[in-house]
TrEMBL record:
Protein name per Swiss-Prot or TrEMBL: Homoserine kinase
Domain GHMP kinase N-terminal: 80-156
InterPro entries named among the record's database cross-references: GHMP_kinase_C_sf, GHMP_kinase_N_dom, GHMP_knse_ATP-bd_CS, Homoserine_kinase, Ribosomal_Su5_D2-typ_SF, Ribsml_uS5_D2-typ_fold_subgr
Family of the protein in this entry: Belongs to the GHMP kinase family. Homoserine kinase subfamily.
Source organism of the structure: Smittium megazygosporum
């Protein structure tokens, strides 16, 4: 009986000035435990066979997620991939148990993780032997900017871009960026969801040249500064400033403006940089020391600015160099 374990990390995109470019893989995970058992007694009656030969189960933390394969994002992606290879259902009988520790709709790449997991699920159950390029291409069909899916697949910190939507292969190119091993991420997660579509809707249709240059200068510096040893906190901090999306999204996240302006590497030992995580509402702080103190300081800011309208919790996460993977646990 084939069994598979699929693991996909959370990601934080739009890192600092890297709007739609830079992403980080973090140590929160979406996990799939997959079994394929054609002899399962549960399905001996052909009239009771599940849709697409698939049964889906979620842990209690994500009980609101649809179990219908025609609505569940992991299943939709997986079925899409299978159809490209002329498979229209899963092997009899496939059971998928999902344990998701990535908060939904909070700017930590929950959708990207589901998309990557769907691709890996299809790849595993029919042994498709997808190349890395094929995985990128399938992900791009569901999320047209690869700054979340790329670090989810390859791990670490990455910069990625779309070569050409009309290309027949190799649509996504990326590089992994060296990162000082002492850096960790402190993510502060407010207890409300912010749909990416809404967060994108507040962005302008055009930008001034000065704002574009501001981000270009800093992204060039940041990609080198992150890997320097010893760390130069002031360089990373100044390089993580943004003018393309954070100023416009500040109104959507009470406390974001104060978080970005009042938390500095000079008044907060160990801190090297702050930014919005993805489209929000989660925020990201990079640090090399005093992680708990920094987390507490961030919570104080959001508790004060929210005026009790929502609670915020923080996690201290590793930057994980290994991206998504699938292990066959039995045969």
């Amino acid at each position: 009986m084939p069994e598979y374990k699929i693991v996909v990390p959370a990601t934080s995109a739009n890192v600092g000035p890297g709007f739609d470019v830079l992403g980080i893989a973090l140590s929160l995970f979406l996990e799939l435990d997959v079994t394929v058992d054609s002899s399962s007694s549960v399905h001996l009656d052909p009239n009771s066979s599940p849709k697409y030969n698939l049964t889906l189960e979620y842990s209690s933390e994500n009980s609101s997620v649809s179990l219908d394969p025609d609505e569940n994002l992991i299943c939709l992606v997986s079925l899409h991939v299978l159809k490209k290879f002329n498979y229209f259902e899963f092997p009899k009988y496939t059971h998928v148990k999902v344990t998701n520790n990535i908060p939904l709709g909070r700017g930590l790449g929950s959708s990207a993780a589901a998309i990557v997991a769907g691709v890996l699920l299809a790849n595993a159950v029919f042994q498709l032997n997808l190349s890395l390029s094929q995985m990128f291409d399938f992900c791009l069909e569901f999320e047209n900017h690869p700054d979340n899916t790329t670090p989810a697949i390859v791990g670490g910190v990455s910069a990625s871009y779309v070569l050409d939507h009309s290309a027949t292969k190799d649509k996504v190119d990326y590089v992994k960026i060296p990162v000082n091993k002492s850096l960790k991420a402190i993510v502060a997660i407010p207890e409300f969801e912010l749909p990416t579509s809404h967060s994108r809707s507040v962005l302008p249709k055009s930008y001034t040249i000065s704002d574009i240059v501001h981000n270009l200068q800093r992204i060039a510096t940041l990609t080198i500064a992150l890997g320097q040893d010893p760390i130069v906190p002031e360089r990373i901090y100044n390089s993580m400033k943004d003018k393309l999306h954070q100023p416009y999204r500040s109104a959507l996240v009470p406390g974001l403006s104060k978080f970005l302006s009042s938390l500095t590497c000079s008044n907060t030992p160990g801190l090297v940089g702050v930014c919005l995580s993805g489209a929000g509402p989660t925020t990201l702080a990079l640090a090399y020391d005093n992680f708990e103190a920094i987390g507490s300081k961030i919570i104080e800011i959001f508790d004060s600015e929210s005026k009790g309208s929502f609670k915020t919790k923080y996690y201290i996460l590793d930057i994980v160099d290994c991206g998504a993977y699938c292990n066959c646990t039995s045969s």
